[in-house]
Amino acid sequence: MAIFNDFLRDRRRDELSSEDLQALEASVHAVQNVPARHSLAISKQPIGVSTYLIEGFICRYMDDREGVRQLVAVHVAGDFVDLHGYPLKRLDHDVATLGPCRIALVRHEAIDQLVRDRPNLTKLLWFSTLLDAAMHREWIFRLGRLDAVARVGHFFCEIEAKLRAVELSDGRQFSCPLTQADIGEACGMTSVHINRMLKELRERGLMHMQRGRVTILDLPALRRLSEFDPSYLFIGE
Amino acid sequence: MAIFNDFLRDRRRDELSSEDLQALEASVHAVQNVPARHSLAISKQPIGVSTYLIEGFICRYMDDREGVRQLVAVHVAGDFVDLHGYPLKRLDHDVATLGPCRIALVRHEAIDQLVRDRPNLTKLLWFSTLLDAAMHREWIFRLGRLDAVARVGHFFCEIEAKLRAVELSDGRQFSCPLTQADIGEACGMTSVHINRMLKELRERGLMHMQRGRVTILDLPALRRLSEFDPSYLFIGE
DNA sequence: CGACGGATTGATCTGCGTCAAATCTCGTGG
DNA sequence: CCACGAGATTTGACGCAGATCAATCCGTCG
C-alpha cells in the first residue's frame, strides 16, 4: 500500500522496522480525498479515529469569542494530524483542510493493538505527537517574542523545513495553498499586516509568494531575520 | 513511597492500576530538593532522565536572540515536567525552577521497561505529555487572540485550575511564587504592563496578587473576561 | 540602617490594528 | 469569448494598545 511512505521521513524512520511499518499500514481502515476548506473534526466530540495526512495541507485551530480563528498547527504530507486524539479521547480544537487533501483513517482500537504488541512503534508514535508539541512551543515563542516581519519569516521557515523533509521543497520553491488571511490566523496578525510584511520580505530580497507558490530567495538571511533554528523539528536525526 | 500521589490527580488517575503505580514508584532513582531560580535542564543536550515535580513551581522557556525569555510552560505539583524528553531524547528548550522545589528523577531505561511491560501505563504517560501539548495550544491562543488584560486573566485561570486539581487552590486563594516579570515572560508582555493589568484586574474586583499569594475574587467573571474554558485541562474526566 | 530586588506610576513613542477603497484573479455561465 | 461576481491582494489614512524610558516607592534581609 505504501500509505506511510512519508511518516517520520528524515527523522527516526530508520527506527521503524518493516514489521512495524506493515502493522501500521494494516491498521488503516480507509483512505479518502477531501476538498479544500473542509472540516475534519470538531472540538470536544469524543473521537475514535485518527487522521494521517498523505497529501495536502491541514490546519488545527481554535476560535475566540467572536469566532476569529487562531491556527495552532499546520500539517503537511507525512504528518499524523490528530494522533494525539488517541490518548486524549477527544480534541480540544478543530481540524480542517486548507487545500485539497488525501488522508488515511486509523481506528483507535487498531492503535490499541499496536500499543499492546509493539513497544518500539509505540515510542515512535508517541515521538511523532511530541514533535507537534515542540512545534507548538516554537509557535508560542514566535507569537511572544518576534515582531511582525520575523513572525511571518519564521512561519515560512518552518513550512519550508517540514516540506523539505518529505521532498516537497528543494529549499527554493514549494507550493503552499494558504491565503494571506490564513497566515494571519497562524501568526496572530491581520491579513492587512501580513500583506505589508510579505511586501517587506519581497523588497528585502528574502522571499515572495504568489498564487500558492512560495519562492525563498535567501534562506540563510530569512532564518537569521526570523531567529529560526530548525533543531526543534528533529530533522536528520 | 507515595511520590506520585498527585500524578494525573483528578484526571485519569482511576485508570492507573495499583500495580502500574507501584511500577512507576519503583522506577524513581532519586528525590531532590532544588532551590528557587535554579536551572534543571538545558536545551539540545541529550538527556537520560526525566523530572517529576513533587512540590513547587517549575517553568520551561526559550530565549530570543537578546536573551529575553519566553516561557512555554509552567508546572505545578503532580506534573511530569519533561517526560517528553524520553521519546525525544533531547529537549528543545530550557527548564528551571521558579520557587524552591522537590523533584523525583526517573531514568529513561526505567521508562523503557514500563513501555515494554505496561501498555496501559504507557498510554497514561503518553496522555500526560499530551496534556502539556493541549496547554501549549491554549498558550498560542492566548498570545495570538487575547488582549493584555485577558492574557493575564487567562494565565491565572489556568494556574488556578491546575492547582485546584491537586488541592493547592480552593478556588479563591493559592500561593504562587512568580514575579510580575515572570508573568510577563509567560504572556509575551513587559513587566510594566503586567503591573498595569494586575491593577486593572484588582480595580475590577476580579483578583489580586501580593507577596506570592493570589486571591481570586470573582472566578466566573475572570473566566468570562479571559475566554477561559478549562476543558483542555481534562480535569474531572 | 542601608541595600537590593520587586512593584508602581507617569510621559512619550511606535508597531500594528482598523477602516475603507481600489485592483487583481479566477471560476462560471451566457 | 467576454461579462460578471466573489474572493484575494494591495495600498493609504488614522488611532490606540502596549512598549520604552525613567523615577519613585516598598518590603525584606544582612
Automatic annotation (TrEMBL), chains A, B:
SUPFAM superfamilies: cAMP-binding domain-like, Winged helix' DNA-binding domain
Gene3D superfamilies xrefs: Jelly Rolls, Winged helix-like DNA-binding domain superfamily/Winged helix DNA-binding domain
InterPro entries: cNMP-bd_dom_sf, HTH_CRP, RmlC-like_jellyroll, WH-like_DNA-bd_sf, WH_DNA-bd_sf
GO molecular function: DNA binding
Domain HTH crp-type: start-end pairs: 146-220
Keywords, alphabetical: DNA-binding, Transcription, Transcription regulation
Pfam families: HTH_Crp_2
Coiled-coil intervals: none
GO BP terms, alphabetized: regulation of DNA-templated transcription
The name this protein goes by in its record: Crp/Fnr family transcriptional regulator
Lineage, broadest ranks: Bacteria, Pseudomonadati, Pseudomonadota, Alphaproteobacteria, Sphingomonadales
